[in-house]
Design a protein that fits this description.
By secondary structure, this protein is α+β, with helices and mostly antiparallel strands. The chain is built from 13 helices and 23 strands.
Length: 516
């Protein structure tokens, strides 16, 4: 007789937070340069070129083929990170792209395997370590100082920010960690925003309404008629970059995500005082831009091109230029000696890692609190850019568990407004393998019974299908129908859905170099 229990997918067996790899990586990586040194020891994870490249569209155009992946138009693939050592117009600069454009690479940079990275971030979220404040002698990010008062100061010449495509509104900082303080409470926050270099000392900033805490800080400062000091740290420890992308409800207003990065490394993130503003920045950053968000001032994002377009965003389309964005008035640019600029392609697999992994950790946190032990793993899949689509791997242990899988999906939707589609699969399906997920959809799913639609729900404005032109149920742009695809086997039908059971053995006896 066949067992009524579905076999567990071996790839998604939960791993402990502290592993031997975690200890080794934590000891090695403490900034961007040590992360690069680590990747140099990992075959196939990093390549370099000395061939000159134009940062205007060409650099990202090259990497599109090498390792972008994500929702970028094909041909593309998931590949190694890449360093360009010869940047046209910036003789002293290097640019790193794609550091986190692989789930495997992102996981290994914080010392875990890919299927355990969300659980690792979840545990770090629950065991925060506060930042520490460094002495000026430890401020590596201030080894070279450029003040806006100096003759000829131009942030566009000092920071080799690329454009993704020929039609971008301008050079964009896509990996800038913006750090600011609530003018009323004194609480801190760090987030990543779309930053366009507009003039020698002005940078526009796009903040999704209601989605980023620095936007709330700016609104408070603007009502008070005061500028908001803000630092932008570029090129830091990848643990900080992953931690920065947590969102509410896991990290409510005033929660400092740097405490998560501290937990990942077992030591608080080192901050230093900025030189020209009353704010802190990340002490080991390759570049720091110091400035102020100016109250009452707005600019058109594409004021220099008038193309109507901003830059490619994570859904795979070029986002429209915003007609009215706040401005950061730059006060200074500080760098390490021979700094390394870090950038990413908007719709790349890098965005999937940055946005998706923290969201996975947050979904785990939420569902574990409501239904402990029933959720096995989560993947915010690449086709959704890390935001629109999640695969939940669930386990049904008793008859009363039937239906709980759909409740899990509702919990995920309730917490993350940007989530549009949830796929539910059993524990014998690998949630990180979309072929396996679609296999479950083809053999365990019936459209008339297993699709659950929730119309008229606010989602993300960058999805062009979330628009009244697409459906009468949509009343405004940014509203959509959320959908649950229940590809799980009904509990009382498990005997009929056993996968073919092959012999379990170690293939290394026959293929010594085999890597599973």
């Amino acid at each position: 007789a066949m067992s009524s229990e579905l076999p567990i997918c071996p790839r998604t067996t939960r791993k402990p937070f502290r592993t031997e790899r975690h200890a080794m990586t934590t000891n090695k990586i403490h900034d961007l340069r040590s992360a690069i040194d680590y990747l140099k020891t990992q075959p196939g994870e990093l390549i370099e070129t000395d061939v000159e490249v134009d940062p205007t569209a060409e650099l990202c155009g090259v990497y599109r083929y090498i390792g972008s992946g994500g929702t970028v138009e094909r041909p593309t693939k998931t590949g190694p990170a890449m360093i360009f050592n010869n940047i046209k117009g910036h003789p002293d600069a290097r640019v790193l792209i794609g550091l986190l454009a692989s789930r495997k690479r992102a996981a290994h940079l914080i010392g875990v395997e890919p299927d355990g990275v969300a659980y690792t971030l979840n545990e770090a979220l629950n065991n925060p370590i506060a930042p520490r404040y460094l002495d000026k002698s430890e401020a590596q990010c201030q080894e070279v100082v450029h003040l806006a008062t100096e003759e000829g100061f131009d942030v566009r010449k000092l920071v080799p920010a690329p454009t993704n495509t020929p039609e971008d509104a301008g050079p964009y900082i896509t990996f800038g960690l913006c750090y600011a303080t609530d003018p009323e409470t004194g609480e801190h926050d760090v987030t990543i925003h779309r930053l366009c270099l507009q003039s020698p000392d002005e940078i526009s900033i796009y903040m999704v309404p209601g989605a980023r805490h620095i936007g709330a800080f700016y609104e408070k400062a603007e009502k008070l008629g005061r500028p908001l000091p803000i630092s932008i740290s570029i090129g830091v420890d990848p643990a900080i970059e992953l931690a920065t992308c947590f969102e509410p409800p896991s990290t409510p207003l005033g929660y400092d995500e740097l405490t998560i990065a501290g937990a990942l490394r077992g030591e608080g993130v080192g901050l230093v005082d900025c030189l020209t503003i009353d704010e802190h920045c990340i002490g080991h950053a390759e570049y720091v831009i110091e400035g102020e968000l100016i109250p009452g001032k707005r600019v058109e994002e594409d004021q220099n091109t008038h193309s109507g377009k901003a830059m490619p965003e994570f859904p795979g389309y070029t986002g429209p230029a915003n007609p009215s964005l706040p401005i950061i008035k730059v006060k200074a640019v500080t760098t390490r000696k021979d700094p390394i600029m870090q950038t990413c392609i908007g719709p790349s697999e890098e965005h999937v890692s940055l946005a998706g992994i923290p969201t996975e950790a947050s979904i785990i946190q939420l569902i574990e609190a409501a239904m402990p032990g029933r959720l096995k793993n989560v993947y915010c899949a690449s086709p959704g850019g890390g935001k629109f689509m999640a695969v939940l791997q669930v386990r049904k242990e008793q008859p009363s568990d039937e239906g709980r899988q759909r409740q899990m999906a509702l919990l995920a939707f309730s917490a993350f407004s940007e989530l549009k589609h949830v796929f539910l699969v059993d524990e014998d399906v690998d949630p990180f393998d979309m072929n396996d997920v679609l296999w479950a959809m083809n053999t365990r799913f019936q459209g008339d019974a297993d699709i659950i639609t929730i119309p008229g729900v606010r989602t993300h404005p960058l999805d062009p299908s979330n628009d009244p032109t697409m459906s009468p149920s949509i009343r405004d742009h940014g509203i959509a129908t959320k959908v649950i695809f229940d590809c799980t086997v009904p509990y009382d039908q498990k005997d009929r859905f056993q996968r073919a059971q092959f012999m379990k053995l170690d293939p290394c006896k026959w293929v010594p170099d085999y890597e599973g």
